[in-house]
Amino acid sequence: MTASSRRSLPDGIGYEQLCAQARSPSGPMNMAAQVCDDWAALEPDRVAIHELGETSRRVTYGALQELSRRVEAGLRARGIRRGDLVGVLLSQSVLCAAAHVAAWRMGAISVPLFKLFRQDALASRLDDSGLRVAVSDAEGAAVLAPFDVAVLTEEALPAPEVHAPAETGAETPAVLIYTSGTTGKPKGALHGHRLLTGHLPGVEMSHDLLGQPGDVLWTPADWAWIGGLFDVAMPALTLGVPVVASRMQRFGVSQCLKICAEGSVTNVFFPPTALRMLKAENARIPGLRTVASGGEPLGAEMLAWGREALGVEINEFYGQTECNMVASSCAALFPARPGCIGKPSPGFRIGVIDDKGHETEGEGDIAIARGAPSMMLEYWNNPEATRDKFRGDWLLTGDRGRWEDGYLRFVGREDDVITSGGYRIGPAEVEDCLLTHPAVATVGVVGKPDPVRTEIVKAYVVLREGAEASADTLQNWVKDRLAGYSYPREISFLDALPMTVTGKVIRKELKARACAETEAPQMTAGGET
């Protein structure tokens, strides 16, 4: 078995042909076999994970399988059986991967948890899921001490045991991943064993056919989130591509460059926030073959910087916890279009629909056809939210978009789109424009209630350290580059923006702030009325 034999997108075939050949995953399937056991049987000495930290070690598939069997033995000793929940409170590490593999092999459901969560965030997820056993380390065990959760650490693992893997299929529950809470209380998205197979086409596209000789994949995104776990770690292991594991409590440019060098990284998934920080320091990372990014649109300026500074075409991809990697750019298959996400991943049908669920040629709600390969089975313990997520046979992403010659253009979150003077304005485009100004470090744009225009465009700006720019300057910057109606009529300067733990601007908090300013006017910088 080779990396190329595991890929879903073979070389030398055009995009349209790949889409025509795509099939939804079905039949017997277990992610533990895909990411570990199949490789361990055929190439046990093949490097699976390069773990960096105080010491550096390369862990083979055989060693990963042995550790996962020790975890499985420990879970069985604590009464875990098929269908039970297993928390995984670990950062990027070999043990983190082994814990998921162990749970999947025995037919249990793994629940990734973020190491930086504290009491309230953990309590909400533990109470909702009801899990009572978790795999962690000493630090995590201390955090979990106030809860009724048995903690299994590596030091306490028993000797490995070999059990027959559970008989599971594409839709057998395998992993419960909680949303980051950008649009409300975090919800648990329950996924089946088809999830990994469903991710592969989009992951391969976003890295220009990942699985080429010499590929080594890394991301600063934590493996507690779907972006780190299923956009990077598990697909890499499935494809036989070594994955670098290195814990970063907070992204820093110098540490990022060090990891890329020590890990001989050739392929990276950078969240937009990380790219902005790299761009701010005009960082260079030699040896990269591909860079992928997702979570927020990047804009033409960032893409141009990627070509110049990183030497690659940054491939943007699109998805969410409930249905991920549904669309991507792929420089190896088709040219990028600035401002567009890319094209549907093979095997996915994306629709831009109206409020009746009919596809439309204009702007509409971005939706995914029911039964997509990476689509969740349901929200955990929340049938009402599951029903509300669909409009007929379409899963609603909550985003607005439109088609442009086969490319999907992201306009903005449904709740974020600004209605001003009869115009609908996507905040992402305004943010992208402001980010091209040399003084702007980061920005969030929302609609502020206005009695005349319904809403006005309001920008909250964080300037680069030592930089200066007036509101008038930034307003004119946008006026000169976008439509006259879309410039921010008010700009406030902040020291920092509210962010999720995954690095996304929490626009709902900015929206609440803007509404509060409307009720009790505050001094802001600039603003034409």
Automatic annotation (TrEMBL):
The keyword Cell wall biogenesis/degradation appears for this protein: no
Positions of the AMP-dependent synthetase/ligase domain: 37-380
Gene3D superfamilies: 3.30.300.30, N-terminal domain of ligase-like
Lineage start: Bacteria, Pseudomonadati, Pseudomonadota, Alphaproteobacteria, Rhodobacterales
GO biological process terms on file: acyl-CoA metabolic process; fatty acid biosynthetic process
The keyword Ligase is assigned to this record: yes
All residue ranges annotated as the AMP-binding enzyme C-terminal domain in the record: 429-504
GO MF term (any one): ATP binding
Transmembrane region(s): none
Name of the molecule in the record: Acetyl-CoA synthetase
Homology family: Belongs to the ATP-dependent AMP-binding enzyme family.
Alphabetic keyword roster: ATP-binding, Ligase, Nucleotide-binding
Pfam families to which the protein is assigned, alphabetical: AMP-binding, AMP-binding_C
PANTHER family: ACYL-COA SYNTHETASE MEDIUM CHAIN FAMILY MEMBER 3, ACYL-COENZYME A SYNTHETASE
